């Protein structure tokens, strides 16, 4: 059989096997076209691999043995093919460079609704700030432009504000190095009086610089404005394209936490230091914590909340390090009542059915604990989903592409969407005061504020 036909046959065979094995539900719902094309894609890749391996190998063997059309006419198509592939790779690199450049520029461009510099002196780029609004980029402008207003605090808590919240953001383009960016952040924290607030939240942003405003909103509202928050960017690309930035991002977090620790050590009164990271931001901030058993006291951290940490051996190891003083929840209903004492300083919010949390290379050859053959499964892990070598890994990889299906104001506790959980979990993790009525008003306010933010951005 000719190599090309062998490749096609192998692809068809593998596609058929994949189609049979991949029946059943996955962690999240796929579009119909993706579901239908999954076996074809996997089978096609296998067919191409088989065809190339057999075709090139057969041609070279015949050439070396002096059989067939001969070494020149046999090997030349291979070399031509290599040239075509090389040209294709070069073209792909050029196209990829343009795409990445476009994505980076998109992170620099300000939304029309967030294009006016703030007049609030308690935020970066406001009056007295050394940073310009343009230097913050799209995500920084959104972050400093949505501080909880006094009327929002009254609406949720029924109490008058005691201070105006501080928000500090230093973007990737604000300086050339992590050291310079952290230096600017510290200048802004001092300028705004952040260290005189009762609470200081350090958030590790995502790859684009995105810093989730919801946990900051919760803190600002429930502390009556007596708080500050800070985020320092390290890149401009989406998180899945920023994995190579984890070392510089975690280094940035270490520099920031070191600087804050040194600043607070010289003060007689200091704020409660809180940490927050979500998705890649969680991975980044976890990597900045000193090794061995987790040591939050090294930085004087009162509480840390890490949400949707990407699955990996490093994540598993970090969980193990925190085992003695952490609490992991899938949803607010799992928050213990009464709270154990002493209160756990480390909280993980991770959905049982979040493919970003569950996906990892080990799925290739090993059944995960979250897919037992019998017994109870976590929430949103389908009973019909089974583990199969390679197939489950490939399914989980596709799952991550559709793990977040966000509709502004429609909070979901599903996949990699944690908006519906953050109000209650942030309140519990940071030991904030909110009775049942306040918590209900908080949830309504967060949804309304997200809709307002989306309309300003132009997404609603």
Folded structure, characterized:
A seven-stranded parallel β-sheet has the order 1-3-2-4-5-7-6, with helices on both faces. It is an alpha/beta fold. It has 14 helices and seven strands. It folds into two domains: 3-103, no CATH class; 112-354 and 403-457, no CATH class. Helix 8 packs across helix 9 (280-288). The termini are far apart. Helix content is 48%, strand content 8%. It is globular.
Largest sheet: 7 strands, parallel
> What is the CA-CA span between the terminal residues?
57 Å
Low-confidence stretches: 69-92
Radius of gyration: 26 Å
What proportion strand? 5-15%
Mass-distribution shape:
globular
Topology of helices and strands:
Blueprint: H1 3-21, H2 32-65, H3 71-108, H4 133-144, H5 150-157, E1 166-170, H6 178-191, E2 199-204, H7 213-222, E3 227-232, H8 246-265, E4 272-278, H9 280-288, E5 301-307, H10 313-322, E6 326-329, E7 346-349, H11 355-358, H12 391-401, H13 419-429, H14 436-457
Helix pairs in contact: 1-2, 2-3, 5-14, 6-8, 7-13, 8-9
Main attributes of the structure:
460 residues; alpha/beta; 2 domains; 7 strands; 8% strand
Brief summary of the model shown:
By secondary structure, this protein is an alpha/beta fold.
